[in-house]
Amino acid sequence: MKIAVVTDDGKTICQHFGRAGYYLVASIENGQVIGKEQRPKSGHHTEGMQHNHAAGDCHGFNAHSQSVHAGMVSNITDCQLVIAGGMGMGARQSLSQAGIDVHMTDVADIDAALKLYLEGKLPNLTERLH
Question: Which residues form the Dinitrogenase iron-molybdenum cofactor biosynthesis domain (predicted)?
Fold first, then answer.
C-alpha cells in the first residue's frame, strides 16, 4: 500500500490539499512504513486557480478545476490513500474517480498521523470537506 500525505515541508500535513506543494508518499508493508519519498504536486500555487463560488456552495466542479485536479492526482496514481488537513469537494471527487481514498485530519505531524492511521486510530474529519 502507498499513502500520499500533502505537505509543504515533508514533516507536517498541509491543511488544504490544493495548496500543498508536495506529496510525501509512504510505502506500507505489514502495517509498517518501509520507505518514504517526496514527490512534486501541482496545485493552486502552480495553476493560479481561483475559487469563485457562493457561500455554502462546493467548489472545484467546473472544467478548469477538474483539469487542475487531474494534474494533482497524476503523480500519485500508484497510491491508495491521501491524507490531508482538508480539501474541496471537486478534488475529493477527482481522487475518488482515480480510485484513491481520502482521509482528513487535524493531526499536523506526518509520522504521527501515519502511525495513528495504521493503528486504526486516526479520525477522519469529513467536515473538513468544503
Answer: 9-118
Q: How far apart are CA 31 and CA 33, in angstroms?
A: 7
Task: Give the pLDDT of residue 100.
Answer: 96
- Give the whole-angstrom CA distance, residue 70 versus residue 67: 5
Closest CA to 26 of 90, 97, 111: 111
| 3-state SS, residue 127 | helix
pTM for this prediction: 0.83
Phi (first) and psi of residue 31, to 5 degrees? 75, 15
Banded model confidence at residue 71, pLDDT cuts 50, 70, 90: low
Count of CA atoms in the C-beta half-sphere (13 A) of 44: 12
| Grid cell digits, residue 88 | 474541496
